[in-house]
């Protein structure tokens, strides 16, 4: 059986630990490989390699770093089909969805290619008599990323291209459930000309996470996952004087106003709630039906959810694939059980879905609840599966209050034709990312991604300008020079020396 190793110091690395974890194909339930689970020693070795590489990489001109990123971008495009198939084989999401997530990661690489422009500082002549002052941004050192199973390419690529473009070195700890994509990306980055030690991958579980937190030579940590773990990482990284951005859970609402284009809203909800089997931190898991539109909304949703095409990710007809593991499947089904017990109306029940030929796969159909109340667990907690809850609200104000009172503040959307309502909603929603007639309001790479409240622990969002600020530290220089001899003239076009 294939063993997935680490990637340290520019090559495959077996590590010091003999611990292994199974990696499954969610479509079939088959164990396809095993992944090495790293130790503290393995993490320390990666840090040592990254420290050594930092000495040279941090002094490499940004333009030269950008040229490596340009080549990396080219190689990702060339190998996009292979990368997409790796994602499908270990996560389960359908091919086009996996390809789309890879594209959203690639866009961050594209943005990072412009790093020479983004690292330009500010200069003021004569802040005092014959005194000049300027600011510049310098890299932090060794940075680390801890990423979730749901986006094995996109989320890591929201981190390491920005960190590396800024002159840092990087250690990635991907999810042990689908680690192969990270290893392939590391190999492609090496092929692009990235020096050894600049980008390392250490597979593992909590042992490696704690090793990252406690290693004094790691300057910054980026994390995406559940809120309890985000809080744990944030608190403990702070204790160890690390810079940290820790993105947590979500319970994204989609407010449906009576005046909206209902077909547009329903189609948007279907993709946002059931795409990637609901395993997205930006999934719209709550639909807030305002006024008298609830019955129409539920009727249209019911038809579409019942006809949702569930199947293997490589089947072109599949609209939704399996969940990532058997354990997660049972957890999601358990939440549906809880919703029924709490008194919500289960309009569509997808718990017993079985696919011929894929009986061992981790499948369930889409589930739709109506008349969900704000005190129910299925409303308050992140389910992370294909379960959509419809909540009824009498007015726009009541809907907005529901959004703002929830502990999570990742993303929110509203469907309306009323510009005043849309403007008021975008201004008053206490949420990090807002969509108006957009079901999944994920910003493009040149903006920044992140939530509010308990969806983000830390001060800065991911990628975009915020990413540059997170992975650099600001230095301000003030200088005065005495009069001196002037150099002889030069007649050669100035170039980098």
Name a few traits of the molecule.
497 residues; alpha/beta; Aldehyde Dehydrogenase, Chain A, domain 1; Aldehyde Dehydrogenase, Chain A, domain 2; seven-stranded mixed sheet; six-stranded mixed sheet; 16 helices; globular
- Quickly count the domains: 2
CATH C-level class of the largest domain:
Alpha Beta
Question: Sheet with the most strands?
Answer: 7 strands, mixed
The global form is globular
Beta-strand portion reads 15-25%
* CATH fold type of the largest domain: Aldehyde Dehydrogenase, Chain A, domain 1
Going by CATH, the homologous superfamily of the largest domain would be: Aldehyde Dehydrogenase, Chain A, domain 1
* Alpha carbon gyration radius: 24 Å
The helicity comes to 25-40%
- pLDDT below 50 for ≥5 consecutive residues: which ranges? none
- SS element count, helices: 16
Protein structure class: alpha/beta
**Architecture per CATH nomenclature, i.e. the level-2 architecture of the largest domain:** 3-Layer(aba) Sandwich
Number of strands: 23
Mean pLDDT: 96
Straight-line distance between termini: 51 Å
Give the strand order, joined by hyphens, for the main sheet.
15-16-17-14-13-19-20
Quick structural summary:
The chain has 497 residues and is α/β, with parallel strands linked by helices.
Q: What this model shows, in words?
A:
- It is a single chain.
- The protein is of the alpha/beta class.
- It has 2 domains: 2-248 and 455-478, Aldehyde Dehydrogenase, Chain A, domain 1 (3-Layer(aba) Sandwich), CATH 3.40.605.10; 252-436, Aldehyde Dehydrogenase, Chain A, domain 2 (3-Layer(aba) Sandwich), CATH 3.40.309.10.
- Helix content is 38%, strand content 23%.
- It has 16 helices and 23 strands.
- The chain has helices spanning 40-57, 62-78, 80-91, 95-112, 115-118, 154-165, 180-191, 206-214, 227-239, 262-274, 294-306, 326-342, 377-380, 396-405, 419-428, 464-470, and strands spanning 2-4, 6-8, 11-13, 20-25, 30-36, 122-128, 131-139, 142-146, 169-173, 199-201, 218-224, 243-247, 252-256, 284-290, 345-348, 367-370, 387-393, 408-409, 411-415, 433-436, 452-453, 456-457, 472-480.
- The strands form 6 sheets. The chain has a 7-stranded mixed β-sheet with strand order 15-16-17-14-13-19-20, sandwiched between helices. Strands 10-9-8-11-12-22 form a 6-stranded mixed β-sheet, with helices on both faces.
- Strand 8 (142-146), helix 6 (154-165) and strand 9 (169-173) form a beta-alpha-beta unit.
- Helix 1 (40-57) crosses helix 8 (206-214) and helix 3 (80-91) packs across helix 4 (95-112).
- The longest helix has 18 residues, at 40-57.
- The model has no long low-confidence stretch (mean pLDDT 96).
